[in-house]
Amino acid sequence: MEENQKLDKVFSALSDSTRRSILVQLKKAPKTLMELADQYDMSFQGVSKHLKVLENAELLNKEKNGRQYICRHKAEMLTEAITWISHQHDFWSQNFDSLDQFLNKNDQSGK
Amino acid sequence: MTNPGNKVYLKRVFNAPVEKVFEALTNPKSITQWFGPKNSRTISAIVSLEVGGSYQFEVKTKNETTFFVEGKYIEISRPYRLVYTAEYRDLPGSPEMKSTITLELSQVLEGTELAFVQELEWIPDDIQSRSASWELMFDRMRDSLISHN
Protein backbone atom coordinates (compact mmCIF):
# COMPACT_ATOMS: atom_id res chain seq x y z
CA MET A 1 0.00 0.00 0.00
CA GLU A 2 1.18 3.49 -0.68
CA GLU A 3 2.62 5.40 2.29
CA ASN A 4 0.00 8.14 2.04
CA GLN A 5 -2.89 5.73 2.18
CA LYS A 6 -1.31 3.96 5.11
CA LEU A 7 -1.06 7.19 7.05
CA ASP A 8 -4.63 8.15 6.14
CA LYS A 9 -5.74 4.92 7.72
CA VAL A 10 -3.74 5.61 10.85
CA PHE A 11 -5.22 9.07 11.23
CA SER A 12 -8.71 7.92 10.59
CA ALA A 13 -8.29 5.07 13.08
CA LEU A 14 -7.03 7.53 15.68
CA SER A 15 -9.91 9.93 15.16
CA ASP A 16 -12.17 7.86 17.43
CA SER A 17 -11.85 8.16 21.20
CA THR A 18 -12.75 4.51 21.90
CA ARG A 19 -10.06 3.31 19.52
CA ARG A 20 -7.50 5.63 21.09
CA SER A 21 -8.44 4.33 24.48
CA ILE A 22 -8.11 0.73 23.26
CA LEU A 23 -4.60 1.50 22.05
CA VAL A 24 -3.68 3.00 25.39
CA GLN A 25 -4.97 -0.14 27.11
CA LEU A 26 -2.97 -2.35 24.79
CA LYS A 27 0.17 -0.32 25.33
CA LYS A 28 0.02 -1.28 28.97
CA ALA A 29 -0.46 -4.98 28.25
CA PRO A 30 -1.82 -7.29 25.54
CA LYS A 31 -5.46 -8.20 26.06
CA THR A 32 -7.94 -10.72 24.75
CA LEU A 33 -11.01 -9.63 22.83
CA MET A 34 -13.14 -10.66 25.80
CA GLU A 35 -11.19 -8.53 28.24
CA LEU A 36 -11.55 -5.51 25.99
CA ALA A 37 -15.26 -6.05 25.45
CA ASP A 38 -15.80 -6.19 29.22
CA GLN A 39 -13.92 -2.99 29.76
CA TYR A 40 -15.83 -0.93 27.26
CA ASP A 41 -19.35 -1.92 28.17
CA MET A 42 -19.82 -2.66 24.53
CA SER A 43 -20.98 -5.63 22.55
CA PHE A 44 -18.39 -8.11 21.39
CA GLN A 45 -19.20 -7.08 17.82
CA GLY A 46 -18.76 -3.40 18.67
CA VAL A 47 -15.28 -3.91 20.05
CA SER A 48 -14.49 -6.26 17.24
CA LYS A 49 -15.31 -3.54 14.70
CA HIS A 50 -12.99 -1.07 16.38
CA LEU A 51 -10.24 -3.67 16.51
CA LYS A 52 -10.66 -4.34 12.81
CA VAL A 53 -10.11 -0.64 12.05
CA LEU A 54 -6.99 -0.58 14.23
CA GLU A 55 -5.75 -3.77 12.66
CA ASN A 56 -6.24 -2.38 9.15
CA ALA A 57 -4.27 0.68 10.11
CA GLU A 58 -1.52 -1.64 11.35
CA LEU A 59 -1.81 -0.24 14.83
CA LEU A 60 -2.38 -3.63 16.39
CA ASN A 61 -1.74 -7.31 15.91
CA LYS A 62 -4.31 -9.99 16.55
CA GLU A 63 -3.01 -13.46 17.18
CA LYS A 64 -4.84 -16.63 17.95
CA ASN A 65 -4.01 -18.31 21.20
CA GLY A 66 -6.07 -21.47 21.63
CA ARG A 67 -9.68 -20.36 21.35
CA GLN A 68 -8.88 -16.74 22.16
CA TYR A 69 -7.58 -13.82 20.17
CA ILE A 70 -4.91 -11.75 21.85
CA CYS A 71 -4.46 -8.16 20.76
CA ARG A 72 -1.13 -6.44 20.91
CA HIS A 73 -0.25 -2.82 20.27
CA LYS A 74 2.05 -2.21 17.31
CA ALA A 75 4.13 0.93 17.51
CA GLU A 76 5.52 1.27 14.02
CA MET A 77 2.74 3.15 12.27
CA LEU A 78 2.16 5.44 15.20
CA THR A 79 5.78 6.45 15.03
CA GLU A 80 5.28 7.29 11.38
CA ALA A 81 2.36 9.51 12.26
CA ILE A 82 4.46 11.30 14.83
CA THR A 83 7.26 11.76 12.33
CA TRP A 84 4.76 13.53 10.16
CA ILE A 85 4.17 16.07 12.88
CA SER A 86 7.84 16.86 12.99
CA HIS A 87 7.64 17.47 9.24
CA GLN A 88 4.99 20.05 9.99
CA HIS A 89 7.42 21.82 12.23
CA ASP A 90 10.07 21.89 9.51
CA PHE A 91 7.53 23.00 6.93
CA TRP A 92 6.55 26.10 8.89
CA SER A 93 10.03 26.79 10.10
CA GLN A 94 11.20 27.00 6.49
CA ASN A 95 8.22 29.18 5.65
CA PHE A 96 9.19 31.66 8.31
CA ASP A 97 12.77 31.68 7.11
CA SER A 98 11.53 32.90 3.76
CA LEU A 99 9.12 35.34 5.39
CA ASP A 100 12.08 36.77 7.24
CA GLN A 101 14.02 37.16 4.01
CA PHE A 102 11.00 38.69 2.32
CA LEU A 103 10.53 41.27 5.06
CA ASN A 104 14.21 42.19 5.03
CA LYS A 105 14.29 42.48 1.26
CA ASN A 106 11.25 44.75 1.33
CA ASP A 107 12.96 46.90 3.89
CA GLN A 108 16.05 47.44 1.77
CA SER A 109 14.06 48.35 -1.30
CA GLY A 110 13.35 51.48 0.71
CA LYS A 111 9.64 51.35 1.31
CA MET B 1 3.44 24.14 27.25
CA THR B 2 0.87 22.44 29.38
CA ASN B 3 -0.37 20.10 26.70
CA PRO B 4 2.16 19.93 23.91
CA GLY B 5 0.65 16.73 22.50
CA ASN B 6 -0.96 17.52 19.22
CA LYS B 7 0.49 20.97 18.74
CA VAL B 8 3.38 22.41 16.85
CA TYR B 9 4.89 25.56 18.36
CA LEU B 10 7.16 28.08 16.73
CA LYS B 11 8.25 31.51 17.81
CA ARG B 12 10.14 33.97 15.64
CA VAL B 13 11.12 37.59 15.75
CA PHE B 14 11.00 39.57 12.51
CA ASN B 15 12.76 42.82 11.92
CA ALA B 16 9.63 44.69 10.79
CA PRO B 17 6.62 46.46 12.34
CA VAL B 18 3.60 44.38 13.37
CA GLU B 19 1.32 45.77 10.65
CA LYS B 20 3.87 44.90 7.99
CA VAL B 21 4.23 41.32 9.19
CA PHE B 22 0.46 40.92 9.31
CA GLU B 23 0.23 42.27 5.77
CA ALA B 24 2.91 39.81 4.59
CA LEU B 25 0.94 36.95 6.15
CA THR B 26 -2.37 37.87 4.55
CA ASN B 27 -1.78 39.77 1.33
CA PRO B 28 -1.80 37.33 -1.63
CA LYS B 29 0.80 39.37 -3.51
CA SER B 30 3.18 39.08 -0.57
CA ILE B 31 2.34 35.46 0.12
CA THR B 32 3.42 34.34 -3.35
CA GLN B 33 6.79 35.91 -2.65
CA TRP B 34 7.62 34.02 0.52
CA PHE B 35 5.26 31.14 1.23
CA GLY B 36 6.43 27.56 0.72
CA PRO B 37 9.09 25.28 2.12
CA LYS B 38 12.64 25.11 0.79
CA ASN B 39 13.07 24.70 -2.96
CA SER B 40 9.44 25.41 -3.70
CA ARG B 41 7.52 28.47 -4.80
CA THR B 42 3.96 29.61 -4.45
CA ILE B 43 2.46 30.12 -7.89
CA SER B 44 -0.90 31.45 -6.79
CA ALA B 45 -2.59 32.68 -3.63
CA ILE B 46 -6.28 33.43 -3.28
CA VAL B 47 -7.29 35.09 -0.03
CA SER B 48 -10.67 36.20 1.19
CA LEU B 49 -9.64 37.85 4.43
CA GLU B 50 -12.83 37.82 6.45
CA VAL B 51 -14.21 35.58 9.16
CA GLY B 52 -15.50 32.48 7.35
CA GLY B 53 -13.58 33.48 4.22
CA SER B 54 -11.31 30.94 2.49
CA TYR B 55 -7.78 30.97 1.25
CA GLN B 56 -5.86 28.71 -1.07
CA PHE B 57 -2.16 28.68 -1.86
CA GLU B 58 -0.83 26.66 -4.76
CA VAL B 59 2.75 25.57 -4.26
CA LYS B 60 5.12 24.08 -6.83
CA THR B 61 7.91 21.90 -5.48
CA LYS B 62 11.36 21.46 -7.01
CA ASN B 63 10.10 18.28 -8.70
CA GLU B 64 7.48 20.40 -10.44
CA THR B 65 4.65 18.72 -8.57
CA THR B 66 1.94 20.96 -7.23
CA PHE B 67 0.20 20.90 -3.88
CA PHE B 68 -2.33 23.11 -2.17
CA VAL B 69 -2.60 24.58 1.30
CA GLU B 70 -6.11 25.74 1.99
CA GLY B 71 -8.54 26.62 4.74
CA LYS B 72 -10.83 29.19 6.27
CA TYR B 73 -10.29 32.19 8.50
CA ILE B 74 -11.85 31.77 11.91
CA GLU B 75 -10.71 34.89 13.72
CA ILE B 76 -9.10 38.08 12.49
CA SER B 77 -7.90 40.84 14.82
CA ARG B 78 -5.68 42.91 12.64
CA PRO B 79 -2.76 43.14 13.17
CA TYR B 80 -2.35 41.06 16.32
CA ARG B 81 -4.14 37.78 15.91
CA LEU B 82 -5.14 35.43 13.12
CA VAL B 83 -6.79 32.03 13.49
CA TYR B 84 -7.43 29.79 10.50
CA THR B 85 -7.77 26.18 9.49
CA ALA B 86 -5.20 24.53 7.27
CA GLU B 87 -5.31 21.43 5.13
CA TYR B 88 -2.95 20.06 2.54
CA ARG B 89 -4.07 18.66 -0.75
CA ASP B 90 -1.86 16.59 -3.07
CA LEU B 91 1.15 16.98 -0.81
CA PRO B 92 3.29 13.86 -1.17
CA GLY B 93 3.66 12.03 2.12
CA SER B 94 0.85 13.96 3.72
CA PRO B 95 -2.22 12.31 5.12
CA GLU B 96 -5.57 13.99 4.96
CA MET B 97 -5.50 15.91 8.14
CA LYS B 98 -7.03 19.09 9.40
CA SER B 99 -5.33 21.56 11.62
CA THR B 100 -6.01 24.94 13.18
CA ILE B 101 -3.31 27.57 13.15
CA THR B 102 -3.18 30.49 15.56
CA LEU B 103 -0.80 33.35 14.87
CA GLU B 104 -0.17 35.98 17.51
CA LEU B 105 1.89 39.02 16.73
CA SER B 106 3.28 41.41 19.27
CA GLN B 107 5.61 44.34 19.21
CA VAL B 108 9.00 43.72 20.76
CA LEU B 109 12.20 45.74 20.88
CA GLU B 110 13.64 44.05 17.78
CA GLY B 111 10.45 44.31 15.75
CA THR B 112 7.60 41.80 15.76
CA GLU B 113 7.38 38.56 17.61
CA LEU B 114 5.28 35.90 15.91
CA ALA B 115 3.95 33.03 18.01
CA PHE B 116 2.74 30.16 15.86
CA VAL B 117 0.64 27.29 17.17
CA GLN B 118 -0.69 24.55 14.91
CA GLU B 119 -3.15 22.20 16.48
CA LEU B 120 -3.51 18.92 14.65
CA GLU B 121 -6.81 17.21 14.83
CA TRP B 122 -5.94 13.65 15.44
CA ILE B 123 -3.08 12.82 17.77
CA PRO B 124 -4.58 11.66 21.05
CA ASP B 125 -3.09 13.25 24.14
CA ASP B 126 -2.87 10.03 26.09
CA ILE B 127 -0.82 8.24 23.48
CA GLN B 128 1.97 10.58 22.59
CA SER B 129 2.80 11.43 26.16
CA ARG B 130 3.95 7.82 26.42
CA SER B 131 5.87 7.83 23.22
CA ALA B 132 9.61 7.99 23.25
CA SER B 133 9.77 9.29 19.71
CA TRP B 134 7.51 12.13 20.71
CA GLU B 135 10.01 13.13 23.36
CA LEU B 136 12.72 13.00 20.75
CA MET B 137 10.73 15.21 18.45
CA PHE B 138 10.33 17.83 21.11
CA ASP B 139 14.03 17.81 21.79
CA ARG B 140 14.52 18.44 18.13
CA MET B 141 11.94 21.19 18.15
CA ARG B 142 13.58 22.84 21.12
CA ASP B 143 16.94 22.76 19.38
CA SER B 144 15.51 24.30 16.31
CA LEU B 145 13.72 26.98 18.29
CA ILE B 146 16.94 27.88 20.03
CA SER B 147 18.88 28.03 16.82
CA HIS B 148 16.26 30.25 15.21
CA ASN B 149 15.85 32.74 18.00
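qc> Chain A touches chain B at residues 3-4, 7-8, 10-11, 14-15, 17, 20-21, 23-24, 27, 75, 78-79, 81-96, 98-104, 106-107 (CB under 8 Å).
qc> done
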